[in-house]
């Protein structure tokens, strides 16, 4: 029994390494001779068994109730319910990743909240007073992005109309009770109508900061229809930096999905704005955002008339003619702004605005419940109702 | 290796598989949300989370900051029956039946997600 062990010691090879420490080898203290084949059999049977046991128990640890391969977390952030799905991460990375997303969204929410006291309220106050306000490069980049998207939308997505949103009472956690603002107040606002062209953005020569001023005292920034998308983009960036490759960040129904659910694409259900249930499903490809603007999200009723929160900057009233617009686009900020702009453009004007903004995949449901889609969107959607709904497909 | 060696190896592996199925997977069967049957995972305002099977019809009254939200579980599906919120987005979501379907009453801080093997959607857009 001792002999083979000693012979092995001096010999190079896998077995010799395993036996280097004699304490670890099987060595009975009494003189007995096991048949070597039996010992080998023990090893050969136990090693795979041990490996199998380890593998099985590793699978067991990942077994979460909902979906064994998905790390999921839901929490309140951005004033809404945020839902994070991660695939192919361990418990530790999952927890860290969710913390990072939460932290990023919270930070963003504090910075850009449209009506609570905070940095944006302060910026609005100083812009209205005609001051030139120094801002960080980070804030400058965001404002520049919002301005670019607004101009490309022909002003239909307009973050400069915070004053109008306030007039309608939507600067509140709870929807207003009505009545709608007096016609004179809306006329007055439209006469002074601020746009993002009134916002002057200057980068400082050092590139590390910048300055902002407004040429229209009525300009009040409200980043609704953009902030959520921008924040989701930042959150996804941070996930990728952590090494997460497969994720969905869903903030109050709007989402960006990267990677896949391992063996299959991520599957998204789009809720039907006309009634209960899901209207269509789609599978995401690689890295893309799915954003919907709907008239059911925030609204109030007054004397039997429903007023929703997506305001048309041209009329000063809630945009008419549309129930919802769903946009698929690579980045969430663009998808968010586009969904808002196309909603405002309505069943007549949305195609032109989509072209201007470089958006190809759109579904618009008009107030009569008709479904308008672009060809590239139609290819993606798997409609869920029986019989299949009638779909109006028109090229952009 | 002799034939006896193969026998030992095979017997060990068989025993392992047997032990696994007996004491690991079977012990998890039958619980709501274990991936074998559809169940509703409900989160309430006070931070509680619990899971109820969808094959057992019932009406649930849950307290939130605005008042009582009523959930109905019937015929393998769950829905918000009433909620003291103003938007009624939760009720608008209708019956939730498939794994991955989800609705929430944010004002009253109550959310419902269906978990189970028939996962149709990873995430819901609205």
Q: How would you describe this structure to a colleague?
A:
The complex is a heterodimer of chains A (396) and B (126). In chain A, strands 1-2-6-7-10-13-14-15-17 form a nine-stranded mixed beta sheet. The N and C termini of chain A lie far apart (83 Å). In chain A, a hairpin with a 2-residue loop joins strand 1 (70-77) and strand 2. Chain A is 38% helix and 23% strand. Among the domains of chain A are: 2-61, no CATH class; 265-396, T-fold (Roll). Chain A is built from eleven helices and 17 strands. In chain A, helix 4 runs antiparallel to helix 9 (227-241). With 396 residues, chain A is an alpha+beta fold. With 126 residues, chain B is of the alpha+beta class. Chain B folds into two domains: 1-30; 39-115, mini-chromosome maintenance (MCM) complex, domain 2 (Sandwich), CATH 2.60.320.10. Chain B is 21% helix and 33% strand. Chain B has helices spanning 3-25, 89-92, and strands at 39-43, 49-53, 58-63, 68-74, 77-82, 102-105, 110-115, 123-125. Chain B has a four-stranded antiparallel beta sheet. A three-stranded antiparallel beta sheet of chain B has the order 3-4-5. In chain B, a hairpin with a 2-residue loop joins strand 4 and strand 5 (77-82). Chain B starts with a helix and ends with a strand. In chain B, 36% of the residues are buried. The model of chain B is unreliable at 25-35 (pLDDT under 50). At the A-B interface, helix 3, strand 2, strand 7, strand 8 and strand 10 of A face helix 1, strand 1, strand 7 and strand 8 of B. Strand 8 (267-271) of chain A pairs parallel with strand 8 of chain B, so a sheet runs across the interface.
């Amino acid at each position: 029994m001792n002999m083979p062990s000693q012979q092995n010691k001096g010999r190079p090879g896998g077995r010799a390494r395993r036996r280097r420490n004699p304490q670890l080898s099987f060595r009975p203290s009494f003189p007995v001779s096991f048949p070597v084949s039996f010992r080998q059999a023990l090893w050969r049977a136990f090693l795979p068994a041990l490996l199998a046991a380890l593998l099985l128990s590793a699978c067991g640890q990942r077994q979460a109730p909902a979906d064994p391969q998905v790390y999921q977390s839901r929490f309140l952030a951005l004033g809404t319910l945020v839902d994070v799905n991660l695939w192919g991460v361990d418990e530790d990375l999952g927890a860290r990743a969710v913390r990072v997303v939460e932290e990023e969204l919270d930070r963003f929410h504090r910075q850009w909240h449209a009506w609570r006291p905070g940095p944006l309220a302060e910026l609005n106050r100083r812009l209205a007073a005609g001051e030139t306000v120094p801002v960080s490069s980070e804030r400058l980049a965001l404002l520049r992005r919002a301005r670019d998207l607004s101009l490309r939308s022909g002003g239909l997505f307009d973050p400069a109309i915070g004053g109008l949103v306030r007039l309608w009472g939507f600067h509140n956690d709870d929807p207003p009770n009505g009545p709608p603002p007096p016609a004179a107040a809306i006329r007055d606002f439209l006469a002074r109508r601020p746009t993002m062209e009134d916002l002057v953005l200057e980068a400082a020569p050092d590139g590390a900061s910048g300055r902002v001023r407004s040429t229209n005292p009525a300009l009040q920034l409200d980043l609704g229809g953009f902030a959520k998308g921008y924040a989701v983009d930042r959150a996804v960036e941070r996930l990728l930096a952590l090494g997460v490759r497969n994720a969905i960040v869903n903030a109050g129904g709007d989402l960006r999905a990267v990677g896949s659910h391992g063996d299959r694409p991520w599957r998204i259900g789009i809720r039907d704005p006309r009634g209960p249930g899901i209207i269509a499903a789609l599978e995401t490809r690689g890295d893309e955002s799915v954003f919907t603007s709907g008239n059911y999200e925030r609204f109030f009723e007054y004397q039997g008339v429903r007023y929703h929160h997506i305001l048309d900057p041209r009329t000063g009233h809630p945009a008419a003619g549309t129930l919802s617009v769903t946009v698929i686009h690579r980045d969430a900020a663009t998808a968010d702004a586009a969904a808002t702009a196309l909603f405002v453009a309505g069943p007549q004007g949305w195609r032109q605005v989509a072209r201007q903004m470089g958006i190809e995949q759109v579904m618009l449901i008009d107030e009569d419940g008709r479904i308008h889609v672009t060809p590239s969107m139609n290819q993606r959607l798997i409609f869920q109702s029986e019989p299949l709904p009638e779909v109006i497909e028109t090229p952009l | 290796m002799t034939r006896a060696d193969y026998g030992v190896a095979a017997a060990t592996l068989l025993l392992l598989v047997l032990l696994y199925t007996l004491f690991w997977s079977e012990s998890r069967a039958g619980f709501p949300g274990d991936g074998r049957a559809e169940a509703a995972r409900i989160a309430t305002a006070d931070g509680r989370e619990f899971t109820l099977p969808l094959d057992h019809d019932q009406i649930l009254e849950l307290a939130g900051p605005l008042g009582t939200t009523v959930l109905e579980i019937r015929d393998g599906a769950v829905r918000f029956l009433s909620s003291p919120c103003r938007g009624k987005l939760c009720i608008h979501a209708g019956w939730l039946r498939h794994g991955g379907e989800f609705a929430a009453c944010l004002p009253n801080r109550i959310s419902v997600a269906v978990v189970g093997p028939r996962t149709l959607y990873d995430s819901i857009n609205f």
